[in-house]
User: Fold this.
Amino acid sequence: MNAPTAPGRSRRAAPLLRGPFARLWAVILLVSFAFHLVTASLPFYAARLGADEAVIGLLIGLIAAAALVARPLAGLWIDAGAGATALVAGLLLYALCALGYWLVPSVGALLGFRALTGVAVGLYGTASQALTVALAPMERRAEALSLHAAAISVAQGLAPSIGVALAAAAGFPALFVACAVVSTTGALLAWPLRRMAARPVAGAVRRIFHRGVVAPGLLLVALHVAFGANVALLPLHAGRRGLANPGLVLATHALGLFVAQAVAGRVSDRAGRTAVIVPALALAAAGMWTTALVGGGALLLAAALSGMALGAGQPSIVALAADLVREEERGAALGTMGIFHEIGIVAGAVGGGLVGRVLGLPAMFALMGVVPAVAAMLTLGRRR
Assistant:
């Protein structure tokens, strides 16, 4: 007589990408595509308006700074039972910001709309993570978050090069209108998800900062210092180092993300979070150091290493934070993780821009690689 199948094993065999989760995944894909359409193009648009390296770093840093404020507020919204509403609001706000890029007369106005973009990212980013965790079985949490991140990776891989080509063929106004249309389509698709969380979570704790996730939050800072520097300044660095289409480095970064996400989430669920987090931090350091040393096509290898680091590390770190809290504290915990997420990006993008202005971009990438390397050694030492 055959032994009965364990409940966890039965749930593991079922595909995650179905029903409401599949709808949520498609929404994440659309808004990420809209966001990354301008990732490689906007630095050149800003330079046309008169921006230098430090100001270009602010294009990303302002998003992170504004999202740092918006994410914990989104956490309160989530714990009040309105996570899907926060998701829709963030999508519509981003569509408005994309149209704002088209209308800006100056660098200062562009930076203002990038700050509003940060509010949008804080809303839809935090809400989409919370909905992902809510829809996934606990024993498949990292796998579900990897699928969430994979939607972003697909968009990051395709959208920057498409955005560069669209801006070259039809101009920046057409690019910005396309961003608004794609984001609005995502909002329409997300609208039915509002029924998923119509009531507050019973016993939810109303707070903005959750001290229980400080440790994984610091790991997220270390990982996203590298990401902030890459997304803000890698296209500019690649152009100066002889790569004809700077959008290709972001495409390769996304390919590395996708490869890591295909396996790292399941490894994390089975072998433990640290088994994935430490190698991911080490890869982040290696990617930054390689970026500092090479040029031309070799930069694609460096971008792939950085992408693999982010793809493996972020879902496991966020899953670790979700593991440490009760369901009724999840919104506050993920909002707090969002604070650390944005601190890392601000440090990498704005700090990287300032360091790059003084020491040059190669030296900046080398210095930024030290942060995840130290975090990896400290985490490994703590585990032992």
Residues 19-199+206-383 form a domain with the Growth Hormone; Chain: A; fold (CATH 1.20.1250.20).
